[in-house]
Design brief:
Blueprint lengths: L7 H12 L3 E7 L2 E6 H17 L7 E5 L4 H13 L2 E5 L5 H11 L3 E6 H11 L6 E6 L10 E3 H4 L7 H9 L9 E6 L9 E5 H15 L6 E4 L6 H12 L3 E4 L5 H8 L3 E4 L1 H18 L1 H25 L10 H7 L1 H25 L8 E4 L6 H9 L4 E6 L6 E5 L11 E2 L4 E5 L12 E6 L6 E2 L3 H7 L6 E9 L5 E6 L4 E2 L5 E2 L1 H8 L5 E7 L6 E7 L1 H12 L6 H6 L1 H14 L12 E6 L18 H7 L1 H7 L2
Parallel strand pairs: 1-11, 3-4, 3-5, 5-6, 6-7, 10-11, 10-12, 12-13, 13-14, 25-26
Antiparallel strand pairs: 1-2, 8-9, 9-19, 14-15, 15-16, 17-18, 18-20, 20-21, 22-23, 24-25
Helix pairs in contact: 1-2, 2-3, 8-9, 11-12, 12-14, 12-15
């Protein structure tokens, strides 16, 4: 049975009526800090909704929305929601060819573009299409007679609102149903052509209801926002923030570290890559400023991490794949108990000293939420050792996005926690049979949050769903005995060597990222005799490494590539990390490595959440791969 009040616009109106005087958003324009109340947000949405309606945007209209993280993004999104239009968002770094594909494939009616520079970049392509109107969010008045180009300044001249208009605007919620499509999000294409994920109000409202419970969200919580607003992980965070009357502070990668200290957020939701960046920045700054302090800091982290691990053994908070007898369980706890007793004074000192690092995160951060990709174990352990509670979340665009999370309801470290309430998760083998705890298989999901399918893509819909309605995630994973989820890789990213051996690249890439001179890396070797690694180096760290081990000065990546001794030494260090004692197999050693002279770029080799587009990288560097893995 359909619920009549289960839409984002119902949620938005409720938030306005409950939290009218509270700050909804804080953001900067140049040096000026602006605070927006829920009342002001409501007025801004109403005014824009009215203006868009006057230009024939209506229920069912498909509106492409090209814009980055900013307050106006949410105003526009909610204005489209209020009209029943279908928002189709992307970031400003979207290539013209990809944007053209999305507009044509989605059968878009309108497009909203962040600024004139972005419009000019795509103008030649847009001129070939028959869009009903083009809106430029930021810019001077642009409209001329007999043209379909408008700036927001053209359509937002009238900002007076009557009581009758407020009442009529609120009543618009009665024309919306939970089965209505509110957005189509085109996936970033890590494995090929983007697919248009259809999401209804019912899909997203499932997350709006369920996610706050997992993190005990309260109206006095403050979020620091840094991810692209169009990405479903960030959108869900902003929606639940509005639903609970929280305040969201818009940040940027450049100001993120300073904003943590200034705004003292209680919650931060971001991708693993940013936590890795914080790890590198804190360690590098310490090493540069005071090598002695850096060594002490690393020792304190190791002490804290080791103590935490042993405490978790005592509390049974590590993954278990079989049930132990009472005697075996007790025996396993004897050594950890002894270690805890010995380490207690040192751990107390470590925790006290490491508390100072929490000030770098604002000092009030009660939860650090990581999603949109796999969080490396060493980063998970590092954040935990600092005394910050990390929520390791798992989701995907197709689930709007929540599937599982190690939230406040689960303390089992090294897992993604339990599935969200009313979500069915199963793990199956190649024959579609459910596997036992500890066995790896494909993760499949069913629940209210799961998409209806991909727009205008029968072939993909057929491949992506089982006969009994489960979504095939394409992720590989396993359950613990308590049904906590662990991701082991991505079925579509598995490298198959010429010998027939299957290799999960993510585990190897994560392991070698511990080396300080490696900024990024991609494992390659599909259909080859052995594995190779394309490495994006941190050049400054690489210079230090070469100076230390070879007493040489290098100035470029090319110099490293020309020196076979250096390459062999680094390959040897990497292969040491890929030791069988760490669970790696002999064929998972690297046959060769190659340093790249340029970083991977967002929108090209990386998605907006900084995941690697393997097919793009492998195509771009095909000659290099063929040469060094001949």
């Amino acid at each position: 049975m359909l619920r009549q009040d289960n839409t984002l616009f119902h949620m938005f109106v409720d938030a306005y009526q409950q939290y009218s005087d509270k700050d909804a958003f804080i953001y900067r324009v140049l040096e000026q800090e602006l605070h927006v109340s829920y009342a002001k947000l409501f007025d801004d949405v109403l005014i824009l909704s009215r203006a868009l309606k006057s230009k024939k945007v209506e229920k069912g209209s498909k509106v492409i929305f090209l814009c980055d993280n900013r307050y106006e993004w949410m105003v526009t999104d909610m204005a489209l929601v209020s009209l029943g239009a279908i928002g189709i968002p992307r970031g400003s770094d979207t290539p013209t060819a990809e944007l053209e594909f999305i507009i044509k494939h989605s059968e878009g009616d309108f497009i909203i573009i962040e600024n004139e520079a972005l419009y000019i970049r795509h103008k030649e392509m847009l001129d070939t299409l028959s869009l009903k109107a083009i809106f430029i969010m930021e810019g001077e008045k642009l409209h001329k007679v007999f043209t379909n180009l408008y700036s927001y300044n053209d359509i937002l001249e009238d900002k007076v609102i009557s009581l009758e208009e407020i009442e009529a605007f609120i009543k618009q919620k009665n024309s919306l149903e939970e089965s209505d499509v509110f957005t189509m999000i085109y996936t970033s294409g890590t494995t090929g052509t983007p697919k248009g994920v259809i999401l209804t109000h019912k899909n997203i409202m499932f997350n709006v209801r369920e996610l706050p419970k997992l993190i005990d969200l309260k109206s006095d919580d403050v979020w620091l926002s840094i991810l692209p607003s169009w990405h479903i992980f960030e959108r869900a965070a902003e929606y639940i923030s509005i639903a609970k009357g929280c305040c969201t502070v818009y940040s940027t990668i450049k100001t993120f570290a300073l904003d943590l200290e200034q705004y003292k957020p209680t919650l931060v939701a971001t991708v693993p890559r940013l936590w890795e960046s914080m790890y590198t920045k804190i360690n590098s700054t310490l090493e540069k400023n005071d090598p002695k302090k850096a060594k002490i800091f690393k020792l304190l982290v190791r002490v804290s991490a080791s103590y935490n691990k042993n405490m978790r053994i005592l509390k049974d908070e590590l993954p278990r794949f079989k049930d132990d007898s009472a005697v075996v369980s007790l025996c396993k706890k004897i050594v950890p108990s002894f270690k805890i007793f010995i380490m207690y004074p040192l751990n107390k000192l470590a925790k006290k000293r490491l508390f100072a690092v929490q000030e770098k995160f604002g000092g009030r951060l009660r939860l650090a939420i990581s999603g949109g990709g796999s969080l490396p174990d060493f980063i998970d352990s590092w954040i935990d050792s600092l005394g910050i509670r990390i929520v390791n979340a798992y989701g995907m665009t197709e689930c709007a996005p929540g599937i599982a999370g190690r939230a406040l309801n689960c303390n089992t470290f090294g897992t993604l926690g339990l599935g969200i309430d009313d979500t069915l998760i199963r793990i199956v083998n190649d024959h579609g049979e459910e596997v036992k705890a500890g066995e790896v298989g494909e993760i499949q999901v069913r629940g209210e949050q799961v998409t209806l399918g991909y727009y205008n893509n029968k072939e993909e819909n057929k491949k992506s769903f089982t006969d009994d309605g489960y979504l095939k995630t394409g992720d590989l994973g396993k359950f613990t005995v308590r049904k906590e989820l662990i991701i082991t890789g991505r079925s579509k990213e598995v490298i198959v060597l010429a010998s027939g051996e299957n290799v999960d690249p993510s585990r190897i890439e994560t392991t070698i990222s511990m080396l300080p001179f490696i900024s990024d890396a991609v494992l390659v070797g599909q259909d080859k005799k052995g594995l190779g690694m394309l490495i994006v180096p941190d050049l400054e760290k690489l210079k230090e490494y070469v100076a230390l081990h070879f007493d040489k000065a290098i100035h470029s990546v090319e110099q490293v590539l020309e020196d076979k001794q250096i390459v062999a030494k680094i390959k040897g260090e990497i292969n040491e990390l890929l030791h069988h004692k760490r669970g790696f197999k002999p064929f998972e050693k690297l046959q060769n490595i190659h340093f790249l002279s340029e970083e991977f770029k967002m929108g090209e080799e990386l998605t907006n959440t900084l995941k690697k587009k393997r097919h793009v990288i492998e195509t771009k560097y095909k000659e290099v791969i063929d040469k060094f893995l001949h």
